[in-house]
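We modelled the chain as a single entity of 238 amino acids. Its sequence is:
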Amino acid sequence: ASELAEVLVDNTSLNDVYIGGEYLGDAGVASIAKALKVNTTVRTLGIIGRKMTPEAGRALGEMLNHNTTITCLSLVNGNIGDTGAQGIASGLSQNTTLEKIQIEDSCIGATGVSALAEVIQNATHLDLSRNIIGTEGAEAIAKVIKNSCKLKYLSINHCDIDVLGVRDLAKALSKNTNLGELSVACAGIDDKGMCALAQSVAENRSLQVLTITYNNISEVGKRAIIEACARSQSLNHL
């Protein structure tokens, strides 16, 4: 990672950077983040590494506070937790160029999700899958759905969302006019949650793709979503 960081400082042609491995940790991420403070060509940054801790999140947040060219950030399989997510959020609060954000399987809870949700109004794509977002996290994401005029894609698969969280999401979705794709697969949604989601799908006028596979629903939930699809004026893929 340190060798790559040295290259990034002066490189003027590299657009996409993907790095990962079992040995990639905070020091490697910090060196890359430092280089990207001054790099002006990289548009996509993807990092995979189980040894990342909250320090990696803070380093990336500091980078985002200075970088004005990266439009896509993908962070997967890290242990950055809520503190690391808050560090990233701190950088995003000053960043206006990042459009696609994926922070998947990164041990983030409701606190981290809420911090991110407050500062991602410019995002068009958001993927927070495989994090335990909880009711509070779902409520925070619902506010993004309600208030953002740019968000087109949202994925919160494997997030164990309870019925209260789904109701918050559904209420926001019913009034949203921009979201085109929503994925809530394996999210622990039961019949009550699916019925609430179905009602919002029927009312929404922008959603085209909905993924709800492997949730905890019976024929009641299935029937509700099928009827919603029949009523929807925009949905074309389930």
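As a brief sanity check on the tokenised model: The CA atoms of residues 37 and 63 lie 5 Å apart. The domain at 1-107 is CATH 3.80.10.10 (Leucine-rich repeat, LRR (right-handed beta-alpha superhelix)).
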